[in-house]
Amino acid sequence: MELMFSDGETFVHEDKRDIEYDFKYIDCCAPAVRVVGTDCEKRYTVTKEFIADPHHPVVLMNVKITGDEAVLSRLKCYALLAPHLNVGGAGNSARSIDVAGDRCLLAWKGETSLAMGADCGFTRSSSGYVGAAMATRIS
């Protein structure tokens, strides 16, 4: 899962390519880390906190974006979920579903599944395939 950011006019930033991150443990005894990243022009900062549950297959990610108010007022954040379940992307299936009135993304392959939701919700979502398979948009 990665995030993408754009002001809709002058830039599109891909989380893993265009933002420099610094990594720190939140607490040495907890399964939790904090990564703080800044775009190359220092217009905004992305703080992500990842907390894992040692007894369940779940990860909670808290994201906070701060920065220049003029940039933040135009900034859009997009979540990109590209699962590679059971050691690979081939044969994965995905769809957008409603759970308790909220839009969520679901992916599966064999007996393995992955779900992603956001407390702020998704205004739109889609699922598709890269490669020879045809893409499908679900709005």
What keywords describe this structure?
139 residues; mainly beta; four-stranded antiparallel beta sheet; three-stranded antiparallel beta sheet; 2 helices; globular
Question: Looking at the structure, what is the overall shape?
Answer: globular
Strand residues, percent: over 45%
Query: What is the element string, with H for helices and E for strands?
Result: EEHEEEEHEEEE
The poorly predicted ranges are: none
Biggest sheet strand line-up: 3-4-5-6
Give the averaged pLDDT, no decimals.
89
Molecular structure report:
Helices cover 6% and strands 47% of the residues. It is built from 2 helices and 10 strands, in the order ββαββββαββββ. It has a 4-stranded antiparallel sheet. It is globular, with a radius of gyration of 17 Å. The two termini are 20 Å apart. The model has no long low-confidence stretch (mean pLDDT 89).
What's this entry about, in short?
The chain is mainly beta and 139 residues long. It is built from two helices and ten strands.
SSE topology sketch:
Blueprint: E1 2-6, E2 12-14, H1 15-18, E3 19-25, E4 32-39, E5 44-52, E6 59-67, H2 69-72, E7 76-80, E8 93-99, E9 102-109, E10 112-116
Antiparallel strand pairs: 1-2, 1-7, 3-4, 4-5, 5-6, 8-9, 9-10
